[in-house]
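Incident log, support desk, overnight shift.

02:14 A customer reports that sequence design results differ from what the structure should imply. Their input is reproduced verbatim below. On-call engineer (initials T.W.) acknowledged and began investigating.
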């Protein structure tokens, strides 16, 4: 990855990711404490009402302590939100300042990965073209030496209707031969290698 070649950018990304994690945890704490405050308030009111009706001393309320914790968690969340904004701004400033270098690194990485894709696609395309030639030879041989039709001694079967021309795609559900070859030629063009099969096909 490009970030591994730019330590300063990696540091900024790591710091931002850590803040994102802390921010998510802080949001969870605020949500949990908010629910606890509501529950504590209801519980406090119920216990106070029962105590007064029974002539007993009013019990200590739980809500104030939980509300204090909630306010502290909310403040921590607000601080984290500002830290995230500052971290994003710092990263953006770095990217703008070193944009040309980063673009060169990205272009180089894309070219290198393109070569890998093209190399693999070229090998698969060579195999595919050989497969197509073998398929064509087999089809030609079957026309010259047709197989004997087996005697039909079974019960009549239901008729199957195929709408439109018979092709590999609508009979087997697979992609058409031209689509396969075209896709692989496109992937092979990602690199600087010679296009597979052009010379051999031209000489045929």
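02:41 Re-run completed on a clean worker. Output:
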């Amino acid at each position: 990855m490009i970030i591994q070649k730019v330590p300063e950018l990696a540091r900024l990304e790591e710091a931002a990711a850590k803040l994102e994690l802390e921010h998510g945890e802080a949001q969870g704490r605020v949500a949990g404490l908010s629910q606890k405050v509501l529950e504590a308030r209801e519980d406090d009111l119920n216990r106070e009402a029962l105590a007064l009706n029974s002539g007993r001393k009013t019990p200590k309320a739980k809500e104030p302590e939980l509300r204090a914790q909630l306010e502290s968690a909310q403040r921590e969340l607000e601080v984290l939100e500002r830290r995230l904004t500052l971290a994003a701004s710092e990263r953006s400033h770095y990217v703008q300042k070193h944009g040309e270098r980063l673009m060169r690194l990205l272009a180089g990485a894309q070219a290198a990965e393109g070569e890998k894709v093209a190399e693999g696609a070229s090998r698969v395309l060579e195999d595919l073209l050989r497969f197509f030639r073998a398929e064509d030879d087999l089809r030609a041989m079957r026309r010259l030496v047709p197989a004997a039709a087996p005697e039909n001694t079974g019960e009549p079967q239901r008729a199957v209707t195929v709408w439109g021309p018979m092709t590999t795609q609508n009979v087997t559900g697979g992609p058409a031969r031209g689509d396969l070859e075209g896709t692989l030629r496109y992937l092979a063009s990602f690199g600087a290698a010679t296009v597979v099969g052009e010379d051999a096909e031209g000489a045929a």
